[in-house]
């Protein structure tokens, strides 16, 4: 096992444990920029990594009754077919060739910047929604918007491995502003499990998962997430989110230029 991969897994786990977001946004660019892993393999490996870690998180949230399964079902109705279509598209266009690798690289950069926007403006967006209750979606319109959001996330996550965390949570806050923070987190994690699992299987089919790399990342991330969660109570959330947003902006710029 490579010590550097374990350290990387630990560092990302530590930050994710403290902030609650940023796993794919950090891990995938880190693998491509620091370790020279091809974009396709970085995305596939991170998806497998996410499906395992989010599966454990879902179990905990289920016991705490903080998962809104009806919303999970709506998101999956859009996300899972979209993930399958995106996988077939990657296969058709050549998931491992240089052109698609460059496309994935730019997709990662775009997804990272969306995550930054979600981190910085989530509170303002929530305040805007709550200030205008008449504009909140209801009934069939809300269901349709949820399914469409799931489809967009399905494509985004399959192509770049990024989006299920901060972007997904932000969409949930916008569509369902009455959910508690714990319910937003639990629902976001729960729908991401089948999505990342299907996307990971698709990348395994494409041959873009490094299983030894996955194992080493898990060895480092488990204690990192645990320690990060313990430290989260002592470090101001605003500082952590600003730190994460700054880091991700730099990563996106590096990916593009």
UniProtKB/TrEMBL annotation:
The keyword Membrane applies. Keywords: Cell membrane, Membrane, Transmembrane, Transmembrane helix. The chain crosses the membrane at residues 5-24, 30-50, 71-91, 103-121, 142-169, 189-206, 213-232. It is a multi-pass membrane protein. It holds the Pfam family TauE. InterPro entries: TM_pro_TauE-like (IPR002781), TSUP/Inactive_protease-like (IPR051598). Its main location: membrane. It is found in: Cell membrane; Membrane. Belongs to the 4-toluene sulfonate uptake permease (TSUP) (TC 2.A.102) family. This is Probable membrane transporter protein. It comes from Massilia varians.
């Amino acid at each position: 096992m490579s010590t550097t991969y374990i350290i990387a897994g630990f560092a990302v786990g530590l930050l994710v444990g403290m902030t609650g977001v940023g796993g794919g946004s950090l891990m995938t660019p880190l693998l491509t920029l620091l370790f020279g892993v091809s974009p396709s393999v970085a995305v596939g490996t991170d998806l497998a990594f996410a499906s395992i870690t989010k599966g454990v998180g879902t179990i905990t949230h289920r016991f705490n009754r903080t998962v809104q399964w009806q919303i999970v079902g709506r998101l999956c109705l859009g996300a899972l077919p979209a993930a399958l279509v995106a996988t077939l598209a990657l296969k058709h266009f050549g998931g491992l060739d240089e052109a698609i690798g460059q496309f994935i690289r730019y997709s990662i950069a775009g997804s990272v910047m969306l995550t930054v926007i979600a981190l910085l403006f989530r509170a303002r967006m929530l305040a805007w929604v709550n200030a205008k209750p008449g504009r909140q979606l209801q009934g069939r319109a809300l269901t349709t918007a949820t399914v469409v959001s799931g489809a967009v996330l399905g494509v985004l996550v399959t192509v770049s491995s990024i989006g299920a965390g901060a972007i997904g949570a932000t969409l949930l806050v916008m569509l369902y502003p009455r959910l508690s923070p714990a319910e937003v987190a639990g629902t976001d994690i729960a729908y991401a499990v089948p999505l990342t699992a299907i996307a990971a299987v698709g990348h395994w089919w494409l041959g873009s998962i490094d299983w030894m790399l996955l194992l080493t990342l898990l060895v480092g991330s488990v204690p990192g997430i645990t320690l990060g969660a313990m430290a989260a109570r002592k470090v101001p959330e605003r500082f952590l989110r600003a730190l994460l947003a700054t880091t991700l902006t730099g990563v996106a710029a590096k990916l593009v230029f």
